[in-house]
Amino acid sequence: MMQKTDPAAQAKRFSAAWWKEIGLLNLGTLLMAVGVYFFKFPNHFTTGGVSGISILLAPYLTGISTAMLNLILNAALLAVALLFLGRDFGLRTAYSSLVFSLLTLLFEKILPLDAPMTGQPLLELMFAVGIPAVGSAILFHVSASSGGTDIIAMLMKKFSHMNIGLALVLADLAVAVSACFVFGMETGLFSLFGLFIKSILVDEVMDNLRTYKVFQIITDDPDPICDYIMNRLHHSATVTEGKGAFSHRPHTILMTVVNRSQAIRLQMFVRSTDPHSFITITSSSEIIGKGFRGMSE
Question: pTM score, two decimals?
Fold first, then answer.
């Protein structure tokens, strides 16, 4: 007996927001692959993760390239995760991990690199850390990751009571330190510095991606502003009544949250609709509630 397809669920799946998330998922994965293959692999920067482990092991495994080893290790981790985690394991992470590994292998076939592209290791480290950090932040933004150590974290969380965050930091640190012995002190120090910068960059990019603008609008003409927020920006607003401390005149106070591009439009609309309104705008990267993040996220 065939299952009936829910039209509402189908429409939600292929909505503009869904396509945007898929686009961001692929963009984040591509950025990670570009940064890792073109800048991390040829310089032997082992800033943690499965790609770092692949860089460390590749010199000792003749006949297997770093990109191929990266694919093998990620595929093995995916298989273990699907076996032990089942539905708890994110399909987006599985997809991103596989595509990331395949992209590095594809780059190796069509654009082989025998040495770094420049003679400036510090410049290359900036790209080796910066590009994947942006890609990783984009993936986290759409509730995904490139797998690797994130899969290990999921497995550790399921089968142990260890502090997962600390364990992963120590694991990445061990990978970076190992570069000192495998590739020399200079490469090892670059790797340690890159690991430190990567952790800061990912957090900064994540905060920027999640930043929303919180508006408090004090106005005497709330109806057109509420109508604009609901029908043009597709958000809601909280309406409260207030009174001026000096004038003792009654005013309406509107509170709403919009993204950065909508913030510009809302500000211009309010100023043109009610030039005497008073607006305060603050930034927030943690908005929890309907239309934003769920309480469980």
Answer: 0.73
DSSP letter for each residue of 172-233 = HHHHHHHHHHHT-HHHHHHHHHHHHHHHHHHHHHHHHHT-EEEEEEEES-HHHHHHHHHHTS
Identify the H or E element spanning 240.
Answer: strand 238-243
Distance (Å, whole) CA 53 – CA 168 = 13
User: How confident is the model over 165-209, as pLDDT tens digits?
Assistant: 677 778 888 889 999 999 999 999 999 999 999 888 877 887 777
Nearest to 214 by CA among 238, 241, 249: 238
Which residue stretches of the chain are H helix? 7-13, 16-35, 41-43, 49-57, 66-84, 91-110, 121-141, 149-159, 164-182, 185-209, 222-231, 260-273
Query: How many Cβ atoms are within 10 Å of 256's Cβ, its own excluded?
Result: 22
* 212-284 CATH: 3.30.70.120
Instruction: Kindly list the domain boundaries of the chain, sorted by start residue.
Output: 9-209, 212-284
Virtual torsion, Cα 97, 102, 103, 109, nearest 10 deg = 160
Q: Roughly how many angstroms between the first and final C-alpha of the chain, as a whole number?
A: 36
Query: How many residues can be counted in the chain?
Result: 297
